[in-house]
Amino acid sequence: MYWYDGQLFEEDTICLSINDPGLKYGATIFSTLRVYQQSLEHPLTQWEAHLDRLKNSLEAFDWCFPNWQNIAQGAKHLIKTYPVLRITIFPDGREWIIGRFLPENLAQFQQQGIKGWLASYPLFERTLNSHKTGNYLGAWLALQQAKTLGFQEAILVDSQGNWLETSTGNLWGWKQGTWYTPALEGQILPGIGRWQLIQWLRQQNLNIKENQWTPSWTKSLEIIAYTNSVVEIILFSQIDCNGELLTFDVSRKVLEILSQYYQNKLL
């Protein structure tokens, strides 16, 4: 089941022209969101923030705006079945919305952590870093390679080896009473989950810094995690850095500080 160009389709194929730039060049933008309690208005869903992300990219690329009422209508159809939506916009303003379920092993990953793999540059590079475009091949390849090697997530780096983001989310680190996340500087996606947590930490008067994650500095972190709008927060139990294995204690209670944001909003 999916929504496309103002219509609901109960099938798993879509009809596109062979000359569609979305098909030929990945010329689309998208945003993926988790819908809480089947409500677009729920504060954790961040519906307006996801629409703003799409609008910002459309304006930057000088593409046509979609029919926003169609998008809301399609989303309301799909959230009856799916807790996760991906909203895609084509250059001419057509909308395409698909749904999926939460990962089956999400609770396990949140409790036990996951193993990460440091991807190499430039093969595993994401283009147009501050936008979510249909050309996500570099990040997708990195994730597939990580899974092939027995890891659950890949971490992308720049030409200097500085850590940027994971293949699906934003990085977080903690040491000596301070939370850290890589600075934007046009190199990473300004994730909506990232923004939510930065605001939360500041409201709680907790230390949060945005900085450059150099290879040597990153190894000093006591905890490393990643966030996105679907999985919320997941710790890394291990990260393979080109053969050097970093190991972390996933039982550290400090993660509860970030988790409190979601718990409080669910009340």
UniProtKB/TrEMBL annotation:
<dbReference type="InterPro" id="IPR001544">
    <property type="entry name" value="Aminotrans_IV"/>
</dbReference>
<dbReference type="InterPro" id="IPR050571">
    <property type="entry name" value="Class-IV_PLP-Dep_Aminotrnsfr"/>
</dbReference>
<dbReference type="InterPro" id="IPR043132">
    <property type="entry name" value="BCAT-like_C"/>
</dbReference>
<keyword id="KW-0808">Transferase</keyword>
<comment type="similarity">
    <text>Belongs to the class-IV pyridoxal-phosphate-dependent aminotransferase family.</text>
</comment>
<dbReference type="InterPro" id="IPR036038">
    <property type="entry name" value="Aminotransferase-like"/>
</dbReference>
<protein>
    <submittedName>
        <fullName>Aminotransferase, class IV</fullName>
    </submittedName>
</protein>
<dbReference type="GO" id="GO:0005829">
    <property type="term" value="C:cytosol"/>
</dbReference>
<dbReference type="Pfam" id="PF01063">
    <property type="entry name" value="Aminotran_4"/>
</dbReference>
<dbReference type="InterPro" id="IPR043131">
    <property type="entry name" value="BCAT-like_N"/>
</dbReference>
<dbReference type="GO" id="GO:0008483">
    <property type="term" value="F:transaminase activity"/>
</dbReference>
<dbReference type="GO" id="GO:0046394">
    <property type="term" value="P:carboxylic acid biosynthetic process"/>
</dbReference>
<keyword id="KW-0032">Aminotransferase</keyword>
